[in-house]
Amino acid sequence: MKKTVERIALPSPSPGTRRELTVHRYGVPGARPRAYLQAALHADEHPGLLTLNHLIRMLDEARNPMIGEIVIVPIANPIGLSQQLHGYLAGRYDFSGGLNFNRDFPELGETVAGAVEGKLCDDAPANARMIREALASAVADLPRDSELKALRAALLGLSMTSDIVLDVHCDLEALVHIYTSYRHRDIAVELGADLGADVVLLEDEPGGNTFDETNAGLWWNLRERLSDDRVPLACFAATVELRGQADVSDELAAADAANLYRFLQRRGVIGGNPGALPTPLCEPTPLDGTDVIAAPVAGIVAYRKRLGDRVEKGEVVAEMVDLTADDPLTARTPVHSRASGLFFSRAAQKLLPPGASVGKVAGPEKLPHRKAGNLLEV
Ligand SMILES: [Zn+2]
Questions:
Q1: For residues 342 and 228, what is the distance between their CA atoms, to the nearest angstrom?
Q2: How far is the CA of 306 from the centre of ligand 1 (A)?
Q3: How many CB atoms are closer than 10 A to CB 286?
Q4: Ligand 1 center from residue 170 Cα (angstroms)
Q5: Cross-strand partners of 93
Q6: Residue 120 Cα to ligand 1 middle (Å)
Q7: pTM score > 0.70 for this model?
Q8: What domains does the chain contain, in order, with CATH numbers?
Q9: Ligand 1 center to residue 119 CA distance, Å?
């Protein structure tokens, strides 16, 4: 398949150094639907790097016609990828300012609302076109006076006008799971089925200005801001968690890339028949039905449950082992789940401080202790 490869230089962070984004583009610019994919915005999450590498190869060799446009940024965070400290890659938070790389993306709603207010008509595609033009102009005006701001502006510039945005991450040790808005439930179910996701988490207002929320939320925020239902919800964005940090292999990456390719066919971005939709492995569950189980005390975590186990509310998922206790028989503190559901995520490091996440259980019932507007992690 024909493509172009572009490099976007980021401002030099220190004399003699410079980083850049690599962008692979397929299809005619402006063709619809437009899909955007990126990997490793949290730079210590590597399964997506290999998966998008496989997807790029598949697209390069593909014989199916390109109907829309695909933009792939295979390394979304070259800043984070450079944060090596004594052999350990610290890729979640920015060394220079402490910010989580996937939080606090700039809000564009007010600027876009100002540009389109009073101009909406009854033609939804025309409204989407006009809003995207305003969006592109708002992104072009974002400040780029630091390397991180320039990176964020560049990523939004590449993604914000898309119909589909997939931000590929991974968890610590985990099954495949997806975060997206309840407003796009049908597409989420389709994506989950194609990817073989064990958990699909539907958010209401998760807060935090994550990358997926910034892209998709612009549209519903604009609808609310203008009190006008003619604003279409024209962007489906999801955070795709491709298992755990150690789950990096050609076998997994090739299968995940093939699944993403079929999803892009199913959404009409690529031509050809994707085949029947696989049977979903799960019903979507609310984000607020997920228990992030905190370690009650410091210690080594010894799991009683494996990933994929169903657990009941109150059940013990792990024990914290107090290595300082005189008597090993009394050295264990049980850790309980407050949700009934699927145990889908565990800690990678097994020595935990109090309050650290022991794991996550996704259940169908909203949990009373979960506050709306809170993401699962900081
Ligand atoms: Zn992440």
A1: 39
A2: 22
A3: 19
A4: 6
A5: 100
A6: 36
A7: yes
A8: 3-283 (3.40.630.10), 286-362 (2.40.50.100)
A9: 38
